[in-house]
Amino acid sequence: MALLALLCAAALAALARGTIPPPEEAARMARFVLHNCDWGALATLSAQEGLRGRPFANIFSISDGPPGPGGGSGVPYLYLTDMEISVQDLEINSNASLTVSLAQTPYCKKHRYDPQNPLCAHIIFCGSIVKVSGGKLALDLFGH
Ligand SMILES: *[C@@H]1O[C@H](CO)[C@@H](O)[C@H](O)[C@H]1NC(C)=O
Fold it and tell me: Which atom in ligand 1 lies closest to the alpha carbon of residue 92?
């Protein structure tokens, strides 16, 4: 297993809070969405035979940091294995995009927002996946 993080400039501001931030505060909103979601769709460029070079989106569990003050960093972490075909893609090309939506929380259903509605906040990270070392970190992030 390898622990990887998608590093990106999309989420950089204040800590996520319990209530949804105003939509115009994009960075706060991005942190909020990431903090409140457990999974996302990770798109890679496929390295598979017959799909090579095509976009390939797959579902992964995510974390935004360990519980406590070190968490809510705005950096999405994924716990990945190289047996996973998306990870095999990343070994060839680490560029990726991660989409995370409040549609997976009760928020959008409660407000009757379609997942496509911009009010059902979702964030799209673009960047590259880098390996983060340390089994301790993996336990902090995913060992609940
Ligand atoms: C990843 O994306 C960057 C642009 O951000 C590009 O320069 C680079 O060539 C890409 N890497 C590969 C392996 O295609």
Answer: 13
CATH number at residue 117: 2.30.110.10
pLDDT, tens only, 92-106: 999 999 999 999 999
Q: Which residues of 131-144 are buried (b: 16+ CB within 10 A; e: fewer)?
A: ebeeeebbebbbee
Among the atoms of ligand 1, which is closest to the Cα of residue 128? 1
In a domain, 87, yes or no: yes
Q: What is the value of pTM for the model shown?
A: 0.81
Say how many domains are in the chain.
1
31 lies in some domain: yes
Residue 59 corresponds to which tokens in the numbers above?
């579902």
What gap in Å lies between CA 71 and CA 60, rounded to an integer?
A: 19
Residue owning the nearest CA to atom 7 of ligand 1: 95
